[in-house]
Design brief:
190 residues, mainly alpha, 6 helices, 85% helix, 0% strand, elongated
């Protein structure tokens, strides 16, 4: 009978542990990067370029760890952390693209930059998986799969967004051209 009163207490402790664990989520950006993003909140192209550069920095960190002269047992864990950070940054980039596209921003150039960078990320992630040792593959498989899915999804979205923007801007240019022709014709009749 004395065990029953302890059950609610155990449930409460488990719940508190779960909440505490959820609150300690890792931020993929360092304070300097957060400040840079905050400063560029009203500049879509600059913000997109910053996010791409942050993702590229994570890829460089992964490559440095991977090619370390004396790899340690901890390298696989650190590489997995950087891969997770890369995926989170790509997801943030994708969210920003969707937001700015919703505001009718002209993103044609930034989208081309995003597509080039993400193609490079995919290539490097695939090479990382292909060249990993069996131990590294076991430790990195989930992170690589998640990051590859994030990058592929973002690239698919960016490709569709670019096609939409090209079509929309093409229609606007044609309309402007027709308006200029009509204005010339109207001037010629007066």
């Amino acid at each position: 009978m004395k065990i029953l009163p302890a059950l609610p207490l155990i449930g409460l402790l488990i719940g508190l542990c779960a909440v505490t664990g959820a609150q300690t989520r890792h931020d993929p950006l360092n304070p300097r990067e957060v400040d840079q993003l905050r400063e560029s909140a009203q500049e879509p192209k600059k913000r997109i370029d910053l996010l791409i550069s942050f993702a590229q920095e994570r890829m460089l960190a992964i490559e440095r760890l991977r090619s370390a002269a004396q790899p340690t047992a901890d390298n696989s864990g650190r590489i997995a952390d950087f891969i997770d950070d890369l995926a989170a940054i790509v997801d943030e980039l994708d969210n920003n693209l969707e937001m700015y596209n919703g505001h009718s921003e002209d993103l044609r150039r930034p989208l081309r930059h995003v597509l080039a960078a993400e193609a490079e990320f995919l290539q490097k992630l695939e090479a990382l998986g292909d060249n990993a040792t069996s131990l590294q593959k076991r430790r990195l498989t989930a992170a690589l799969a998640d990051a590859s899915d994030s990058v592929k999804g973002s690239s698919d979205g960016a490709r569709a967004m670019l096609a939409e923007q090209l079509a929309k801007r093409g229609e606007e240019k044609n309309k402007e051209k027709l308006d200029r022709q009509e204005a010339r014709q109207a001037q010629g009749t007066h």
